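Lecture notes, continued. The same structure-token format from the folding unit now serves as the input rather than the output. Read the line below as a description of shape only.
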């Protein structure tokens, strides 16, 4: 009886370790099979994704699609084709609370058991995407946005990013 229990636990661990993860935040179920990370996008949502605030640009193993809020020039940037590209004009980082704690581990990886990318949150998938938090007219509805906040504006159908001063919209 004890051996069957141990075998069952071992089998469950193997299944959990090799399965492709899908994560829902703020809700119980991920919408669709093509989503690796999904947020609660109920009507009236005003919570977005906050980008890491970095002092300068990260180095090391970088992958296209890496986003940061660079507090040295107060711009939101994306890494694309071996170049950091600004997505905003200079904003304001005075509201950013510095995290002075020692960094531990390699971050959280969703969708794979390991990754060569170095980030706080790494999404690995060849056939799944992240669905951003969806907010209708964030410049009106988000009362106190935090520098580096990112969401999808359902009204203008654009990517919306807050640089600490204004919302920037990208089609």
């Amino acid at each position: 009886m004890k051996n069957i229990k141990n075998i069952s636990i071992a089998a469950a661990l193997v299944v959990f370790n090799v399965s492709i993860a899908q994560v829902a935040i703020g809700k119980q179920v991920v919408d669709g099979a093509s989503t690796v990370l999904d947020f609660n996008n109920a009507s009236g949502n005003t919570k977005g994704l906050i980008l890491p605030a970095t002092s300068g640009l990260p180095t090391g193993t970088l992958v296209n699609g890496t986003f940061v809020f660079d507090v040295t020039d107060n711009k939101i940037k994306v890494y694309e084709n071996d170049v950091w590209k600004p997505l905003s004009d200079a904003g304001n980082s005075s509201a950013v609370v510095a995290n002075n704690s020692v960094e531990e581990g390699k971050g959280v990886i969703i969708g794979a058991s390991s990754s060569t990318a170095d980030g706080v949150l790494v999404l690995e998938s060849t056939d799944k995407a992240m669905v951003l938090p969806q907010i209708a007219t964030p410049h009106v509805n988000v009362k106190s946005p935090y520098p580096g906040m990112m969401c999808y504006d359902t009204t203008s159908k654009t990517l919306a990013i807050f640089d600490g001063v204004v919302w920037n919209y990208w089609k």
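Point for the exam: The longest strand covers residues 75-80.
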